[in-house]
Design a protein that fits this description.
The complex is a heterotrimer of chains A (about 180), B (about 375) and C (about 375). By secondary structure, chain A is of the alpha/beta class. Chain A has one domain: Beta Polymerase, domain 2 (2-Layer Sandwich), CATH 3.30.460.80. Helices cover about 15% and strands about 20% of the residues of chain A. Chain A is built from three helices and seven strands, in the order αββαββββαβ. Chain B folds into two domains: about 60 residues; about 280 residues, no CATH class. Chain B has a two-stranded antiparallel ribbon with strand order 1-2. Chain C has one domain: Cytochrome-c3 Hydrogenase, chain B. Helix content of chain C is about 50%, strand content about 15%. The radius of gyration of chain C is 22 Å and the shape is globular. The chains are: A alpha/beta (about 180), B mainly alpha (about 375), C alpha+beta (about 375).
Chain lengths: ~180, ~375, ~375
């Protein structure tokens, strides 16, 4: 929908490699020394950062004066099955009014990542939710309990693509009164 | 030895039981009527209609409620302390009924006319706090405990302004006998010459009865009913009955002490039924005021409540007592002393208002809309 | 003497843990917080959420785009139009649909009306939290009823509208729509006045709310708060203004900000926003054009090319975001609902520790949470 104004991050659709008129040049400058890869999203620029450098990169993005990403809009993950999981950060700068999406890809066999709560306190609950829904472990998280799920549910990750939807799930207790045949 | 009731000679014990039953029956009916009235009045304040389906104009709603409450199971939580839990409601209920003893309804209609009636009233009316604590402690519920502690803190704090405002009037009237007080107000009611005392009495009475804005012990959005959160059925309805009986008694006391009772403005010689109407009007006015406050006032916080009592009301009542003593000590003319007292009282009310206003309206920034140019624009 | 340590040990005190919720009159749904209290002072608050988690995000992955609209209604039932709007805008953005002007203006009217209804709900519930017996609640209900009647005429339902469609609207509004909206606005104006008179200048109300639960602008931003709860702290972040969607760039309205970020400012901001919403709707009614409400060429089965989009709109409680990932096909690959209440609720502990128990309750009320949006 083109009639939506979407801030400075938006630019008329051009060749996919061109980042003119976007926030990328600034981000590129700020993230020097970090191997970041840009991509054009529908509205915002997407920056891929390797997970080892992610927190450093996020901190730079927040502290850089020209960028000033002081607001964490959203933090979530996308399960890409064989290609691992993307952890997605949607950043916004209240003073500068521009947006950025940051992505880090985790391999399926090692779903750990450092916590972003050291950068924004807003990440606290969002990370807890992401952790319990996808089974991603956020290192050094200050409060690593479950958020929406029962406290003892630490082996079921509902938002993974492998998680079935239509079957009766045994979430807690001794089969919740169902026998093996019922299931 | 016999005593006479309705022209029949009765054994004093039978007589006592009959009177007691009449008494409890009357008070129950009054409380049920008040509950109905409160629901109707509050409904009008809230742009609703209120009960209307049960009986004509919903008049039987309270009866239906009472029947339901009596029929309900009387539950006791497993961990509750049996004795305190079961006895708590009685200790709330009985002192309130006892405090009714001393109040003269109309000329010569009273249970017992005490020479020190006012003293008896203030002495007996604060016993029910024990019942609140027993209910709160015995319920083994943290909300109940919190509520009970709040009730005690509040009850004790507001007992003082309540009693001292009555003392001020007693000094002015030079009697503690409630009937003599009424006769004293034959021409002008006490409220004219003791407006500050009346204000303080009203506020403290609201707090004593746990009515909004002082319903902190029972505040449903915080402690979910406070001490009676665990009660059900008949025991719960005893608290309820106690609350409305207390309201009725406070209203009676206010009309006796401040509004001239059954005498002013029609004089003492009028027929008994005129006096009944007069008392009804005065009592209803007071009760309506209480309902009105309930419909429009938020609840205070516990520290504000305590501060208001100890820092504002108590010094003002002391001042009122002192002023009364001073004015009367010099034995000025009838009118001079009265006008002086009235002026002093009004000055006190102005001071009270100024204190409240100042504490509420210290420089208060208001959120102003940001003009379009100032806001962050795209 | 040696008894002294004995006595000290005997009188060792312990703070009381008070479990508020999940069933408590003032938790606005099934929310639970465990308060550690010392007398009446709150020393710690641990919120527990998730009682209403229905997995709307997962469910949407199995439904096609149009079926997902219903789920969005149910995530944010007090402002369902706003929730739908985010979702359909995300789908439109991915599918490249052009929404006709009339549909955009109508969406704007409905969303602002819904904002009014939602804020009225806040006013009523907040009045009860503060302790007025029920008067504000019924006052709020009166005008809210009028708005819901209007919505029922438009969409056929009072709360779960499912009226917006990717591309436009489900059907045309009733013929007398404009007059009905004006009628309702008149009632709402009166309702705002009533509220102003009942609460704003009430001494007890001011004493209870001013300076309570204050949060600074920097903290509020750091916690990711949004909506009136953030603006009350003095941050003029309103997505309708900063990143205008629909036709918000073409109407004249003010962004209401507070100064102290306390409970009173949050109340006042919402009260003032009611007036601004009325202004916006009035302008929309004047500018409402005729024309189609759906694009000419709508595919029978809506499919989106692969891609992802994060759409944010200003819902009554703050930023309602939809993160939609598509791998092609007619259903989302991943849908994430960015809930404003979830982020606002994070700051609850920060705002209520050190206050009285009664204050913690009204701080919770002033965030104006909808638990179905928090838990989704």
């Amino acid at each position: 929908m083109t009639s939506d104004g979407n801030g400075a991050a938006e630019a008329p659709a051009e060749a996919p490699e061109s980042f003119e008129g976007t926030i990328w040049p600034d981000v590129d400058r700020a993230l020097s020394g970090i191997s970041a890869r840009p991509e054009r999203g529908a509205i915002d620029v997407i920056v891929h950062i390797p997970r080892e450098e992610l927190i450093r990169g996020l901190r730079v993005l927040r502290q850089d004066e020209a960028l000033d990403f002081d607001y964490l809009r959203c933090l979530t993950a996308v399960d890409n099955e064989d290609e691992g999981m993307d952890v997605v950060y949607h950043l916004y700068s209240i003073g500068k009014n521009h947006n950025l999406t940051v992505k880090a890809t985790l391999p399926s066999d090692d779903l750990t990542l450092d916590t972003a709560t050291v950068v924004w306190r807003a990440a606290n609950w969002l990370e807890r939710e992401t952790a319990e829904m996808f089974g991603i472990r956020f290192n050094n998280h200050p409060d690593p309990r479950t958020l929406l799920m029962p406290e003892d549910m630490d082996d079921t990750f509902p938002l993974r693509k492998t998680h079935p939807l239509a079957e009766i799930e045994v979430l807690q207790g001794e089969g919740m009164g169902y026998t093996e045949e019922d299931l | 030895m016999t005593s006479e009731l309705f022209g029949a000679d009765l054994n004093p014990w039978v007589d006592a039981i009959v009177r007691l039953l009449m008494w409890v029956g009357f008070m129950t009916v009054v409380a049920m009527g008040l509950i109905y009235l409160e629901r109707k009045v509050l409904a009008r304040f809230m742009a609703r209609i209120g009960p209307q389906k049960t009986g004509p104009m919903g008049l039987l709603q309270s009866v239906a409620d009472a029947l339901k409450l009596i029929g309900k199971e009387d539950l006791r939580p497993r961990n509750a302390d049996p004795w305190t839990f079961e006895l708590g409601p009685y200790l709330v209920f009985i002192p309130i009924f006892m405090s009714f003893l001393a109040i003269p309804l109309v000329f010569d209609w009273h249970i017992r006319l005490f020479e020190l009636g006012l003293l008896y009233f203030v002495a007996i009316s604060s016993i029910n706090l024990v019942g609140w604590v027993m209910a709160g402690w015995g319920s083994d519920n943290r909300y109940a405990m919190l509520g009970a502690l709040r009730a005690v803190a509040q009850g004790i704090s507001y007992e003082l302004p309540l009693v001292l405002s009555l003392v001020a009037v007693a000094i002015f009237n030079q009697t503690l006998n409630l009937e003599e007080m009424i006769l004293f107000q034959g021409q002008t009611p006490n409220i004219l010459w003791q407006p500050l005392a009346f204000m303080i009495f009203f506020v403290a009475a609201l707090a004593e009865m746990n009515r909004p804005p002082f319903d902190i012990p029972v505040g449903e959005s915080e402690v979910v009913g406070g001490p009676f959160v665990e009660y059900s059925g008949i025991r719960w309805s005893m608290f309820f009955l106690g609350e409305y009986t207390a309201l009725f008694i406070m209203a009676l006391l206010a009309s006796v002490v401040f509004l001239g009772g059954w005498a002013w403005p029609l004089g003492e010689e009028l027929g008994r039924w005129w006096q009944v109407i007069l008392m009804t009007v005065k009592t209803s006015a007071f009760i309506f005021l209480v309902f009105w406050v309930r419909a429009s006032m938020p609840r205070l916080r516990i520290d504000q409540l305590m501060a208001f009592s100890w820092k504002v009301l108590l010094p003002l009542t002391f001042a009122q007592v002192l002023v009364n003593g001073l004015v009367l000590a010099y034995e000025w003319d009838y009118w001079v002393s009265r006008v002086a007292l009235g002026v002093a009282g009004l000055a006190g009310i102005v001071l009270l208002y100024a204190i409240i206003d100042r504490s509420v309206r210290r420089p208060r920034p208001r959120p102003a809309p940001v003009a379009q140019s100032e806001a962050v624009t795209a | 003497m040696v008894v002294r340590p004995e006595i000290e040990r005997e009188f060792e005190t312990q703070d009381l843990l008070l479990n508020v919720g999940p069933q408590h009159p003032s938790t606005h749904g099934v929310f639970r917080m465990v308060m550690e209290i010392d007398g009446e002072l709150v020393k710690d608050v641990v919120p527990y959420i998730g009682y209403l988690h229905r997995g709307a995000e997962k469910l949407c992955e199995t439904m096609d785009y149009r079926q997902g609209i219903g789920f969005m209604d149910r995530t944010e039932y007090l402002a369902a139009f706003n929730a739908e709007l985010s979702y359909v805008m995300a789908v439109e953005e991915l599918a490249g649909l052009e929404v006709p002007d009339r549909a955009q203006w109508l969406r704007m009217i409905l969303c602002e009306m819904n904002r009014i209804a939602s804020h009225l709900m806040f006013m009523g519930a907040f009045g009860i939290d503060v302790g007025v017996f029920g008067t504000p609640f019924i006052y709020a209900w009166r005008e809210r009823e009028a708005i819901f009647d209007l919505f029922e005429e438009v969409s056929g339902d009072r709360m779960m509208y499912a009226y917006f469609r990717p591309g436009g609207l489900a059907w045309e509004v009733p013929v007398n729509f404009t007059e009905r909206v004006r009628e309702v606005l008149k009632a709402v104006n009166q309702g705002i006045k009533d509220f102003d008179g009942l609460l704003t200048e009430n001494e007890v109300f001011i004493a209870r709310t001013r300076g309570v639960g204050a949060i600074s602008a920097a903290d509020a931003i750091d916690f990711g708060m949004s909506g009136p709860s953030l603006r009350a702290s003095g941050v003029p972040l309103d997505i309708r203004r900063t990143e205008p969607y629909l036709k918000y760039a073409e109407v004249d309205f003010d962004v209401v900000v507070g100064q102290n970020g306390d409970v009173y400012d949050r109340y006042l901001c919402r009260l003032q926003e009611l007036r601004e919403s009325v202004r916006i709707v009035e302008q929309c009614l004047e500018k409402l054009p005729d024309g189609p409400i759906m694009p000419e060429k709508m595919p029978r089965m809506l499919r989106t090319p692969p891609g992802e989009v994060y759409i944010r709109t200003e819902a009554p409680r703050g930023e309602y975001g939809i993160y939609l990932v598509s791998e092609g096909g007619n259903r989302p690959y991943r849908l994430k609902v960015r809930s404003a209440c979830l982020s606002n609720l994070q700051a609850l502990k920060h705002m209520s520790v050190g206050q009285y128990v009664a204050d913690a309750i009204i701080v919770l009320g002033s965030i104006d949470i909808v638990l179905s949006e928090v838990d989704r």
